[in-house]
Amino acid sequence: xxxxxxxxxxxxxxxxxxxxxxxxxxxxxxxxxxxxxxxxxxxxxxxxxxxxxxxxxxxxxxxxxxxxxxxxxxxxxxxxxxxxxxxxxxxxxxxxxxxxxxxxxxxxxxxxxxxxxxxxxxxxxxxxxxxxxxxxxxxxxxxxxxxxxxxxxxxxxxxxxxxxxxxxxxxxxxxxxxxxxxxxxxxxxxxxxxxxxxxxxxxxxxxxxxxxxxxxxxxxxxxxxxxxxxxxxxxxxxxxxxxxxxxxxxxxxxxxxxxxxxxxxxxxxxxxxxxxxxxxxxxxxxxxxxxxxxxxxxxxxxxxxxxxxxxxxxxxxxxxxxxxxxxxxxxxxxxxxxxxxxxxxxxxxxxxxxxxxx
Length: 358
Ligand SMILES: [Zn+2]
Ligand SMILES: [Zn+2]
Prior knowledge:
Bound molecules: zinc ion
Number of helices: 10
Distance between the termini: 38 Å
């Protein structure tokens, strides 16, 4: 009898929440890496799938291996492919350890991989695109951990000058009067690995249209485990959603043994259908594929016409969703393959094809 082939791994999760694509993988304890290509940023790099290499910035939440395992690879591979140094944004408290890790790889690879380490104090910000900033803020986990909020800074006419004719405004400006003020428009918040904390309802999280969030445990009996591991439980999520104004919350870091079908129906019961419809599971390949197909049809594009990525697959959703894997009933194993194929598909892959390293 022939041996069994290896178990099939789920591909990358993908959701299109206009104007953002949310791409990545996230399973509690194994690996979390999310990317928002439109913002040139990824959040955590537990692993570094090829489509994530082009992200100019990597915001690291904390030092657990499932969030950082692919970070050195990201920097080295970007260098190898001529994509420029990786820019690592991290809590100040873990920056020395990241530097030590990178030094270790310099010895191992005999290559001085360039990277920029941007260490943030809590509440400090860094510009990632023109007028778009990321801010780190403290969460409560077993090790020093940040959440991140991405916001756009816009200048707005001060209230007292609204309605004045343009010539008057120009004149005031000419006299040195400050006629505008800066406002912050929250875009995306990333909140992974924390217990419930006041940070969940800070303005730049509460008002973010898209929240990427962990929820590790869904069984009623798991509340104690959530406390010990310092993670969110679905009961916390339900409570949190009462305060958020998001148009979508994307859930990751779900434990592998979670039955997504049951988790989703419980969410509908707890939140009602409307509110529950805002909650998406990153790794729910089947539901996300159907959702994207609906989006394509609404946009007048036929799902079958979507050209997919390169040599790895025929479309963004190459592999058929599995009917649950070992210990993962209800769809966590749903494959969304072709995303990994990247180049030429809906996910822009890295600029160059990798050559085999000598
Ligand atoms: Zn984790
Ligand atoms: Zn952790």
